Each structure stands twice: as structure tokens, then as C-alpha cells.
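Q: Convert this sequence to C-alpha cells.
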Amino acid sequence: MQSRGSWRCALATGAAALLLAMNGTDAAIATGAATGAERADRVVVRKSERALYLMHGDTVLRRFRVALGLEPQGHKAREGDFRTPEGSYTLLERNADSEYFLSIRISYPSTADRKRARRNGHAPGGAIMIHGQPNNPTRSQEYYRRTDWTNGCIAVSNADMVDIWLMTARHTPIEILP
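A:
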């Protein structure tokens, strides 16, 4: 029997194969991204719109609805404030064995975030991710679809998470705007 992580990785790999067949592309990997025009060169999150955009140059490749931290207004100032950070970061590690359906860690906190938190006597927090839905949900699907429910992460549907996983690569810039 496969572990949950290997099952999700197999699903992402299968989705990559389907994407390849549909696009006629000869190579893509679940840990990287789709190739060619479908690859995003940056990610933009507009918190006020509850939207994540996969961009290639000035072209929007895809737009996704997102859920944010329980306190979505303002920049993350400290651990436990339930805010989603604002600023320029990069996408880092991918985790197919996350507590959520796939996750990609964001490079928060930056040096400036750490200094700001320290100056105010706080820890900056961390573990900010783009991720899918909880593997063991405690609420209805409607709740996750319509509510800001994370501890500061950016959450999307599982189907949208597969697309984001496939269309981005490690070190893709992400800008999180108010």
C-alpha cells in the first residue's frame, strides 16, 4: 500500500502526464513544472481579491481563488497573528506528504521580516505555504471554499493545487499584495 505522500506524488505525476498528452509536450515532471508557455515565471497574490495569478511576463496564465489567514488584513508581523505576509518572496520546497493536499513553502520570513519582528519583541513565524485542502478536514467543503481559514498560508482547491504544482518551479518569485 502506498503512503499518502507517494499517492499524492503519483497523482501529480499522472496529472503531468495528462497535461503532456493534451499539450503535445515531451517532458515535464511533477516536482518541477509544465514546460513551454504553460510555465509561470512569477506568482502574484492579491489578498484583497482573494486571487492567485500564475504569470508569464505580463500574461495571466491562470487565476485561482484563494483562502488566506484568519486575519487577512495587513502584513504578517509575528508568529500566531493569523495573517498572510505581504511582500516579495520565492517558492521553495515542495512537499507531497504535507498535512494538506500538496504544499509549496514560501520564503517568508525575509531578513527584513525577522528584523521587524525582533524589533517589536516577537518571533516572525514561518512555515507559510501555498497548499490544497486539509487531508483530514474538520469542516465542510463549503467552509473551506468560502472562508479565510488558514493560519497565514494561501490555500486553494486540490485541483488548483495540482495546476500550481505543475506550472511553477523552485525559486519562482511570488509577490503577495494587500
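The CA atoms of residues 33 and 167 lie 4 Å apart.
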